[in-house]
Design a protein that fits this description.
6 helices, mainly alpha, globular, single chain
């Protein structure tokens, strides 16, 4: 029995060593590849405790130009919670973009147009480490907690 415990302990120590080595290599790769971009962020007021539906809608107007068909109109099932998109997510809901097509039908060509990209970038809160957030989809990358710790609050 003692022999089995020693072997198991040796395996645990070896796996811990390998995991630590992988973290060091992954951390070095991330810090070498990701360079911060200088950004100027504006302070936003906290989400209001109460507001009218019209005020909340105004804080979501530009967002709905692009975020529409597959997105929920609100993250809150309770109708007593009246918040616009920018109350929680930040950004500028006054930025509007339209190429004449419906918001839900944005094709790859529209998404790569200079006018769309300019509107997208001015409407969103952009990350300090944009290269770390680039992936083949709009999904968040794995282990975002490590990236979020480097971002500006």
């Amino acid at each position: 029995m003692i022999h089995g415990i020693r072997i198991r302990s040796a395996w645990v120590a070896l796996l811990a060593l390998l995991a630590g080595a992988l973290l060091v290599v992954d951390g070095a790769r991330t810090s070498e590849e990701s360079k911060p971009v200088a950004r100027t962020y504006r302070d936003a007021p906290p989400a209001p405790a109460r507001q009218t539906a019209a005020d909340a809608d105004a804080k979501s107007a530009g967002c709905l130009d692009c975020h529409s068909a597959t997105d929920q109109p609100t993250m809150h099932a309770n109708p007593g919670v009246v918040l616009g998109c920018t109350d929680c997510h930040g950004g500028d809901a006054a930025v509007r973009w339209s190429d004449g097509s419906s918001a839900g039908g944005l094709g790859v060509g529209a998404r790569s147009s200079p006018s769309y990209m300019a509107a997208r970038d001015s409407a969103h809160v952009l990350p300090r480490y944009p290269d770390a957030w680039k992936f083949p989809s709009s999904a968040n990358p794995e282990r975002t907690y490590a990236l979020l710790n480097k971002e500006s609050p």
